[in-house]
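Okay, is this right?
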Amino acid sequence: MSTRELPTYCRICEPLCGLIATVEDGRLVRLRADKDHPLSRGNACPKGIAFTEIQNDPDRVLHPLRRTASGEFERVSWDTALDEIGERLRALIGEHGIDSLGWYFGNPSTFSYSHTLWMVGFQLAAGLKHVYSAGSQDINNRFVASELLYGSATSVPVPDLDRTDFLLMLGANPLVSHGSAMSVPRVRDKLTGITKRGGRVVVVDPRKTETAKLFEHVGIRPDGDAWLLAALLQVIFAEGLQDEQALRRQARGVRELRSAVSRFTPEATAGITGLDPDLVRTLARDLARADSAAVYGRTGTCLGRHATLVAFLVDALALVTGNLDKPGGSVFGKELVAVSELSARLGFAGYGRNHSRVGGFPDVLGTFPAAIMAKEITTPGPGRLRALFTSAGNPVSSVPNGRELASALPELDLFVSIDLYINDTNRIADYILPATTFLERDDIPLPFTALSPTPYTQYTERVVEPYGEAREEWRIIDAIATRIGVQPFAVGPTRPLGRALSSLRRRVPRLASARPTPPLLADLALRTGPYGDRFGLRREGLSLRMLRRHPHGVVLADSIATGVLRNIVRHKGGRVLLDPDEIIIELRTLTARPADPTYPLRVIGLRELKSHNSWMHNVEPLMRGDREHAARINPKDAAVAGISDGDRCRVTSAHGSIEVTARLTEDLTTGTIAIPHGWGHTGGWRRANAAGGANVNDLMSTDLADVERLAGMANLNGVPVRLDPVS
């Protein structure tokens, strides 16, 4: 028996915790936390450790599948599947044009550099218009806020946890989620470190989350974040607590912002936020007077009706208090690859360069709101979506009103899915193509170094060969592109990258016959990036060769450098723009949602430590124990509805209804119901019924008026509902 132990890292979420994979005779038998990883230092969550179950799951799709006339799937060869897909695509493009072709990619694609590279290369080279992602259910508002503030959508500040004295956290529960839009292993230690050195952590959330229980909790009403942030700014301006020196040095548009927030006094906003005006004033003063302070908002703030405004005000608050680009404040990491600079020069990965056919929504990093996909399929006219590819995603489960999308998908002329499983989305696909897991491919976390307060990176080789006939996504995308005559990176905005590669081939003999591959492009990007070795001119600079010598990863600096804001901002004059028209108009017109006695409560999302969306519900170690799909309800609200702990209850919105188990808890502010996402799947899994539950997104709307206008974000938080007992 041959046994190997190989260092790698987890690609489920942003901390990227180090793992050790034990492989026997080519098969994974165990994952454990890597004690030699310089940041995670032997820490990993249950989901990462349990990925062995996904790797070895007998339910994985390991061979290409083709849908038959009877609706079942049959196994076919790769050549058959790809040739037939290519033939059908060419016919569709010939009749309806390339505008009829679309792609949806899910969150796991962000953690695969090769998948992302080839998806973007194919999109730009082919000129795809219909591109959608999980970002409109997660983070696209953050990118739009950065574009408005800094002129750079991919420049996202992160809290300097190691040096801050005061952390204001909104809509985030990092003790369970491990942090998002920041890459911080051992985040619990980082947060408790703030209080141990005499600082404060204040958590603003409608629920007293696992994180809030350790620190200070401010129980805001659902979707009240915009009003609270505006009120904090109003107090700071009114009481002269703003950092005038920072404003003169870093910003323009201060007067307009100050005027726009002047009506949001703590008294005027109390009815919406549910917060005592004195508490809001004290919070504003403490934040402004702290020696250093960081403001951080995440998923809970991204899914309300004013998601982009909230993300904008988070950074504006940091700047106004003098804590943007300051040690201990909200700081900017150095990108491993100069994505922001390349985007600006080459004209891709921006905002609002195109608008959707349905609804006229601006694109965000080349993608449109996933909530409109169904309407793009069913709405007649030129550019109608007729052929769809999905990769690493299950949008029927993750978008609002998945029933609408499930009904629309059969109208496609061609539907192809690249995935690990048969799921609720692809069970009606024409073809399902088996993808590798993250343990069956090489990887480097190219986007995440800039999100780490301690700049760090790691390269991993695959630890096992692909099981069955599974292939890496980039190879599948490349094969499909080839069959319709498209060469990723050969045309469009990425043409300069292709030219650079051609030039490199001419100058480096060993690369003369090399074709573009992800490792080749990654090595080129690393060597020429901010930390690169400049092809041997900089000792200990980054290259794949150097990273292979450090399999547990490399710390690039002790902490993020500050004083870099002028290098980040791409607006004229190098100053942060605090008064873009889009934001000032929204502040001037911001009004509360009218009360509706039919739906007196508000539903919010909830993340669980042992659940990570539908694709991990086949994992036995996570299925054991106390995991159940239940709505958390304040006892006062339950009493009004006549519901006791453990009862079945019905939660109804204007758009749908679900049944769940009621769990009563004082952790919820009155008027709030919290329901975990990622449940309610019905297709493809052996133990789907054991997972059970209902899809909270069935309560949500895809009406165009309910999709956030600036970033196309789905409204998944603060949605009005009512609660009824189930007899």
Summary: The mean pLDDT is 91.
